[in-house]
Amino acid sequence: MNPTPGVDPGRLPPWARKGDVLSRAARPLRRLLRAGRLHSVCEEARCPNLAECFSRGTATFLLLGEACTRRCAYCAVTTARPDAPDPSEPARVAATAARLELDHVVLTAAARDDLADGGAGHFAAAVQELREQRPQARVELLIPDFQGHAGPLETVVRARPDVLNHNIETVPRLFPRLRPQGSYQRSLSLLARAKALRPAQVTKSGLMVGLGESDVEVDQTLRDLRRAGVDVLTIGQYLRPSRRHAPVERYVSPRDFEVFAARARALGFPGVFSGVFVRSSYHAGDVLARLVPAQSGGGRP
Predict the structure, then answer these.
(1) How confident is the model at residue 5 (pLDDT cuts 50, 70, 90)?
(2) Average pLDDT of 6-10?
(3) Which architecture, in CATH terms, is 14-291?
(4) Virtual torsion, Cα 249, 264, 293, 167, nearest 10 deg
(5) Residues facing 203 on adjacent strands
(6) Alpha carbon distance 47, 169 (integer Å)
(7) Position 293 confidence tier, pLDDT thresholds 50, 70, 90
(8) pTM over cut 0.85
(9) How far apart are CA 32 and CA 99, in angstroms?
(10) Could you count the other beta carbons within 10 Å of the beta carbon of residue 163?
(11) % residues pLDDT > 70 (the chain)
(12) CB atoms < 10 A from the CB of 24, how many?
């Protein structure tokens, strides 16, 4: 795999520019989230796809509040002491998903190392509420690493989501700088255990490029993820949320994202989605439908 070097990291290239996240078309969904006292990772993480997704009536729900107990150098989610879990939140998320008539619901949460189960029980409760209030919807969970504890992972797997996602985010050499409270091997182990606990489960992981990784390191990370049994892989360009965050080391061209995708497919990933604006939950419903088009319940059986 030999993508060409990225362009000058000091200048945002035309292909890495997207529309205004404050688009008027995004306002109705913003108001609906406020009315339901709900958060979205789209807003908290300053996703460049926010206006596009909100205008389509989709969002990735952020459970357990907007504060995270960790501080990753690339992430815009606020690091602070979180509030206690709100037991009414799972029902409110499900009600909002039903009102939006969502056919694919993505739930995530910031790392909650302050909770004994890392928030796993809250994830499971949200899945149960969605099954009751929007039974035709597929459910995708984007989970933290639960500090490597087996119990919380078993809790979310028993909830039988259609997709279980945990992002590796970057290559092992960069973990100490970018994810100091995480562990590359811990994340790989979580993905492998999730597949072992429920082999029919669709597992998913995502990788950012542009943070200083080499192409050789990307290749090795793809191999590691495939050995861990990951079914769906997403690869996207890191875009710096603010000057306080890690700088962009390179901008990868659209053609080179195609090179990454070709390499991943050659390794045997059933689903690969690679591009500048690809994020782990971007068009997530379309991603799963292409992978399992004949199964209305995805990996639920």
Answers:
(1) low
(2) 60
(3) Alpha-Beta Barrel (3.20)
(4) -50
(5) 164
(6) 15
(7) low
(8) yes
(9) 9
(10) 26
(11) 92
(12) 9
- For the stretch 174-213, pLDDT in tens is 999 999 999 999 999 999 999 999 999 999 999 999 999 9
**SS3 (DSSP) at 60:** strand
Residue 164 tokens read as: 């279980």
pLDDT band at 296 (very low <50, low <70, confident <90, very high): very low
Distance CA 21, CA 98 (A): 24
CA distance 158 to 150: 12
Strands (E), the chain: 39-40, 60-63, 67-68, 78-79, 104-109, 138-142, 163-165, 202-209, 232-237, 271-274
| 30-82 per-position pLDDT tens digit | 999 999 999 999 888 889 888 889 988 999 999 999 999 999 999 999 999 99
Is pLDDT of 142 > 90?
yes
Q: Between 89-99 and 27-35, two packed helices, what is the crossing angle to 10 degrees?
A: 150
Q: Which one-letter amino acid corresponds to residue 68?
A: C
Name the token pair of 284.
């997530």
Element (H, E) at 11: none
Instruction: Write down the residue that tokens 């992972």 correspond to.
Output: 153
Is residue 279 within 8 Å of residue 49, measured between CB atoms? yes
Q: In what order do the strands lie in the sheet with 60-63?
A: 39-40, 60-63, 104-109, 138-142, 163-165, 202-209, 232-237, 271-274
Q: Which amino acid would we find at residue 258?
A: E
* DSSP character at residue 298: T
**In angstroms, what CA-CA distances link 71 with 151, 177, 241, 244, 285?**
24, 11, 14, 12, 29
